[in-house]
Amino acid sequence: MTALNRVQVHKAVFLMLVVLVQGDTQVGCVFGGSCVLPCRFQPNSDTILHWNKIFKTDRKKLEVHSYYDDQDQLGYQDPLYKGRTSLFHDQISGGNASLRLARVNLQDQGRYLCYASTSLNSQEAFVTLTVRAPMQSAPKSEVLLPCEASGLDDITWTFNHNQTILRRQAGQEKVVETEWQQHVRDLSESGSLLLYVTSSAQSEGTYRCTLRYADEEDVTHIELKILEDPIAGRLSVNIQRQSVMLNLLWSERATLSNNT
């Protein structure tokens, strides 16, 4: 027997877990309405679906909706989403894991993770949800400008890029600039600003909500347009919102700190 015949050849079988990650999908939802957060996966047996809302600052997540064993599993669903979420059950077998969200509110804004697992692989998809109010009727001449912050964020609201409206450092009370005190009605815990609107000449423009935490900066631009209705005797407000997240270098943050 040759040396080659005496060699025992062992075959090793490796189980490789494949996780496919997709880029963020942007979804705009109307306040008070319903919208769909899209998510697709490669269908196979043993389907498990999890929807979670994730936070960039404190790394926590909220359980939004779960599905496995061929049925919804809502035992750990966060109370904020109770009775407001549903899946397209007749389309799950075809790879549709999209989530329908009803009665959308400002707290729903943020980043969501769709996790889908089967016997074939696991997939992740991220959806960023923003809440918009295309047309608000404001009989009391008040308007809510949305912004989403955690309790750890420093907040700054500015108008037309050069006028500071207010500042609030994490854990402290807000400080409103003198010329804006008659216009600012309230600042919510989430950072949304309630303004008293007087006329288009004084209130129209670009509002910016800047959130800072550690080495991250989240900037929300809101374009405010006002339509005056002399017959109804009230104002209608058109809001367009755009959010951008920036990662700041420490040198840039030092420069920002020196300029404030």
TrEMBL record:
Signal peptide: 1-23
The protein's name: Ig-like domain-containing protein
Localisation per UniProt entry: Cell membrane
InterPro entries in UniProt: Ig-like_dom (IPR007110), Ig-like_dom_sf (IPR036179), Ig-like_fold (IPR013783), Ig_sub (IPR003599), Ig_V-set (IPR013106), T-cell_Activation_Regulation (IPR051713)
Top-rank lineage group of the source organism: Eukaryota
Taxonomic source organism: Gadus morhua
Principal place of residence: membrane
Keyword Glycoprotein listed: yes
CC annotations in GO: external side of plasma membrane
Limits of the Ig-like domain: 124-220
PROSITE patterns xref list: IG_LIKE, PROKAR_LIPOPROTEIN
GO biological process, one term: negative regulation of T cell proliferation
Keywords assigned by UniProt, alphabetized: Cell membrane, Disulfide bond, Glycoprotein, Immunoglobulin domain, Membrane, Receptor, Signal, Transmembrane, Transmembrane helix
Topology in the lipid bilayer: Single-pass type I membrane protein
SUPFAM superfamilies hit by this protein: Immunoglobulin
Stored Pfam families: V-set
